[in-house]
Amino acid sequence: MSATDRLRSELAFHDAQARERAATFAREPGRLRFDDNAYLDHETWIRPALACLGDVRGLRVLDYGCGHGMAAVVLARRGARVIAFDLSHGYIAEARARAAANGVDVQTVQADGERLPFADGTFDRIWGNAVLHHLDLRRAGAELRRVLAPGGVAVFCEPWGENPVLNWVRCGLTYPDKDRTPDEQPLRRTHVRLLRQFFPRVEVRGFQLLSMARRVVRSRRVVAALDAFDAMLLERVPALQQFCRYAVLTLRRQ
Ligand SMILES: C[S@@+](CC[C@H](N)C(=O)[O-])C[C@H]1O[C@@H](n2cnc3c(N)ncnc32)[C@H](O)[C@@H]1O
């Protein structure tokens, strides 16, 4: 697929998704309001990953591929000066409405993550969840390095693709909430090597090993037990991180 076709297909997919969501919010605007914990606890990696940004008070923070804009709102509530961008006009409209509904200031911009409309070194921190795996990492990596200020930190949470069984399930099975664009690719070690061309220090931490079963297991007690077991296993055998469902990547600009 050419770069233009990929962008067009991503845009159509996410705009269609945002249109459906907009219909719900038009009927029930109160659903745009949320408290921080609802976002921080919706996936196990979000809270620890956001903590890697440190204290963001007064910092210039970019929400990269912001989608619904919940992270942008949480960061603004923490005192950051937030700019949120997304390829999808529909999601940008939702992020703008969500910021207004929650009474925070977030600047929103429609843009392509591979060609950012920001000056060099504009941001102290960059946040992204489930976005880099939709992009050409060579282009996105160069742009990330360009717009991140020296000493800045970028944190991305991305589906991880080194578990062959999980890859087979992702491609071959249908399961609840499965919703993928045709071109997205979970990140792999080759992608991390590529990012290291722009950021020599890339840290990778895996999340959800056994507890990825939460996609089909609905018992909270079982999921909590699997989370606890994962924490113990990943601490004792870090090499198992490569088999996790998600990875949090921390990129530091020197
Ligand atoms: C799976 S969603 C994640 C959204 C949000 N970050 C979250 O935490 O839910 C992927 C997002 O990436 C956006 N996206 C895809 N390709 C993009 C690109 N080239 N530039 C900017 N955003 C892009 C989509 O429009 C969509 O909002």
Properties at a glance:
254 residues, alpha/beta, 7-stranded mixed β-sheet, 9 helices, 19% strand, binds S-adenosylmethionine
Describe this structure in words.
With 254 residues, the chain is of the alpha/beta class. It binds S-adenosylmethionine. S-adenosylmethionine binds next to helix 1.
Helix content estimate? 40-55%
Low-confidence parts: none
**Overall residue-averaged pLDDT value:** 95
- Main sheet attributes: strand count, strand direction, barrel closure: 7 strands, mixed
Count up the helices. Answer: 9
What proportion strand? Answer: 15-25%
**What radius of gyration results from the CA coordinates?**
18 Å
Which strands sit side by side, in order, in the main sheet?
3-2-1-4-5-7-6
**End-to-end gap:** 35 Å
Report the bound ligands by name, code or SMILES: S-adenosylmethionine
The sequence of SSEs as H and E is HHHEHEHEEHEHHEHE
Shape: globular
| Class from secondary-structure proportions | alpha/beta
Number of strands: 7
Short description:
The protein is of the alpha/beta class. Helix content is 40%, strand content 19%.
Helix and strand layout, with pairings?
Blueprint: H1 3-27, H2 36-40, H3 46-51, E1 60-64, H4 70-77, E2 81-86, H5 89-101, E3 106-110, E4 123-129, H6 137-147, E5 148-159, H7 164-172, H8 189-196, E6 201-207, H9 220-236, E7 246-252
Parallel strand pairs: 1-2, 1-4, 2-3, 4-5
Antiparallel strand pairs: 5-7, 6-7
Helix pairs in contact: 1-5
The structure holds S-adenosylmethionine.
Residues 7, 10, 14, 65-68, 86-88, 91, 112-114, 129-131, 134-135 line the site of S-adenosylmethionine (SAM).
